[in-house]
Inverse folding.
């Protein structure tokens, strides 16, 4: 399963290439509560078919009625991009299913250039970060490969959206926990790879759609070429596999680097890396462990839920409160226990 943004762009390109008229809608601004964040996209075909979303469904229905022939409407116009706003009044907010006080502004691109979308997808599939700028007065889109993520913006003249390749997860160790974590990551749109130098572990892997690599994890991490949309998680419980892989991962820009283990194992890992590999507390600051949020998990499936929640929080730029930290939660439990 790929990310919804890539799915929308890929579907829009395919529809355009097949000769259909297509509307590409992007959430440009939100005020108050909103079901979808800025930059969210949907593609609408002239016959009413939709992929992606910009709201909980009611605004999509309105766009279908306004701009397609699915219900006998006028179809998609041949015009420059338009800005439309929903939810300005309480009545509209209620009618379109927006939360109380929510307002949503969309940019509608009518039949964007399929060659431009095709080139954009080629760059994204090659692992590049691409800045797409759309001139609102005529709809012309320009693309530029960039190394720096940029916040989505729309100033009334240009829409600027920096799009990246799909998020990736590299798992070190092909055990049961890795299978559960891989399944959840695939469901959330990540491309997943697993590496293990032990052929018998890879041979027993049961999750379809995962890139399996047999090799020493530090070599695999190096070849993986992590970027800002990569997370690397060591779950083998074997220091011979995990330690060097984590050291290699810390040399790159992955947004999440962590290793499974108890508080004691995590402390021992840090001490080992400092003593034998010339690391410092500062150089290990990005290394997470124990990983996950505290939900009292015991089984591999529950632990995977815990870890995936923390990964998604990091991906979305959410600072989790200390109360959900495994370390702090368990320390608080210990302090709350009566003295013997």
């Amino acid at each position: 399963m790929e990310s919804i943004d890539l799915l929308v762009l890929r579907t829009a390109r395919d529809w355009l290439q097949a000769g259909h008229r297509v509307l590409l809608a992007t959430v440009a601004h939100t005020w108050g509560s909103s079901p979808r964040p800025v930059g969210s996209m949907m593609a609408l075909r002239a016959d009413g078919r939709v992929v992606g979303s910009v709201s909980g469904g009611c605004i999509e229905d309105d766009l279908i009625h306004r701009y397609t022939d699915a219900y006998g409407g006028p179809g998609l116009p041949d015009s420059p991009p338009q800005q439309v706003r929903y939810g300005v009044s309480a009545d509209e907010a209620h009618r379109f299913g927006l939360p109380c006080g929510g307002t949503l502004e969309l940019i509608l691109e009518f039949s964007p250039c399929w060659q431009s979308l095709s080139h954009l997808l080629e760059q994204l599939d090659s692992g590049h970060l691409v800045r797409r700028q759309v001139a609102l007065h005529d709809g012309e889109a320009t693309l530029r490969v960039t190394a720096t993520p940029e916040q989505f913006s729309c100033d009334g003249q240009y829409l600027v959206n920096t799009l990246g390749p799909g998020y990736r997860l590299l798992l070190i160790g092909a055990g049961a926990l890795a299978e559960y974590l891989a399944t959840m990551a695939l469901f959330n749109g990540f491309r997943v790879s697993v590496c293990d130098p032990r052929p018998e572990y890879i041979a027993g892997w049961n999750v379809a759609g995962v890139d399996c690599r047999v090799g020493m994890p530090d070599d695999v991490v190096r070849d993986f070429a992590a970027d800002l949309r990569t997370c690397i998680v060591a779950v083998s419980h074997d220091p011979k596999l995990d330690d060097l892989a984590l050291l290699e991962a810390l040399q790159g820009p992955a947004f999440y680097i962590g290793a499974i283990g108890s508080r004691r194992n995590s402390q021992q890992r840090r001490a080992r890396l400092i003593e034998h590999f010339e690391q410092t507390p500062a150089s290990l600051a990005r290394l997470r462990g124990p990983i996950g949020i505290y939900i009292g998990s015991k089984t591999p499936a529950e632990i995977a839920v815990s870890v995936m929640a923390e990964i998604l929080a990091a991906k979305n730029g959410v600072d989790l409160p200390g109360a959900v930290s495994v370390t702090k939660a368990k320390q608080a439990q210990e302090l709350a226990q009566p003295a013997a």
